[in-house]
């Protein structure tokens, strides 16, 4: 990519670059080299100069430059001889060629050079090229880091459970993965629906890991947490100067996904104006950054998730119908935890073991009462709530077993065991006694827990127990 001519962009201003950015200039024309080194140092770069390939190799070993300005014609060889070594070390390279040596410049780009400049080089043009190369390098390092982080985050990702509901989800993931991996085809979008905490993000990551390009980026975008004023820039990217704080060009998350997976979590929270832009990307498979007239191809597969009823939102005018139909190609429903039967206990034991290993605690089983409580509770927060409550119980429990009171489940949401129902016509006094007996039985005779379930203080609970002649 050839640098733009001077005046097409805002001039580079000294002092905007960290002094830690190291530039190596490999150039045999001494007067030109001195001028370049002086201008780079004025702009805040550390700059060293080598007049030959041999000296250049030595300085690369000594200073580990972030960027190399590499002349093609040198006294002891061609800059192309050094270029592959630099690229293999992850060093950005801008090649410099004399007029009429375009062939060398093209070949340099094929070998991995970031940019090229034609001599004679305008110093302001050179500074712009250096800034662009440095920005591109930082973005590449950021994407490499994100990819490594996502790979580590994907380790051990699994959908636990043997219930029919979970088995159906696994079968859908396998089938959808086959469809989105078809060669020479635009990957179909996948919409994952389900209540909060059911594991929609786990299903999306498993779908990514099951596809052919599982080594490519997995970019998770939480549409609900992105600030409204930044979400467009985050998704679509921007060019330098597109708005007040846009100090440099930046890839958007759509481009960052490359040919991997872009997971749009909580898609129902996306503002209506951005829904139109997203639909355009899905339809045309091209994205345009803010402040740019150039479009970039989009290769990523799109997976969206929501806990909202998008169809109802369409009827209410809060979600575009055309985007809904475009997203609703392949649909997967994540079952709530209360519909997964014995999977609940299996998951509880799994989360308990995870917490024990993380904190070096001795393994402890759940008591019979705690197991019943876990199995019968409705879990409105689903798997996320189960993980939180179990981890908390494991950390706070001081007994040889994890007891029911360690779980600290809300009494108003607790699914109680069969209750003793008073006979018709019974007095309020008798009904109160029955309620207290049920609460004590449900809490395994833990007075504090029973009081909390009934919404009274422990002292009031003791008073009522004495009044009704109830003893532990």
From TrEMBL:
Keyword vocabulary terms for this entry: ATP-binding, Nucleotide-binding, Phosphoprotein, Transcription, Transcription regulation
Domain Response regulatory, chain residue ranges per copy: 22-134
SMART domains: AAA (SM00382), REC (SM00448)
InterPro entries per UniProt: AAA+_ATPase, AAA_lid_NorR, CheY-like_superfamily, Homeodomain-like_sf, HTH_Fis, P-loop_NTPase, Sig_transdc_resp-reg_receiver, Sigma_54_int
Segments forming domain Sigma-54 factor interaction: 159-395
Residues carrying 4-aspartylphosphate: 71
Source domain of life: Bacteria
Protein name stated in the entry: Sigma-54-dependent transcriptional regulator
Organism: Methylobacillus methanolivorans
Organism lineage string: Bacteria, Pseudomonadati, Pseudomonadota, Betaproteobacteria, Nitrosomonadales
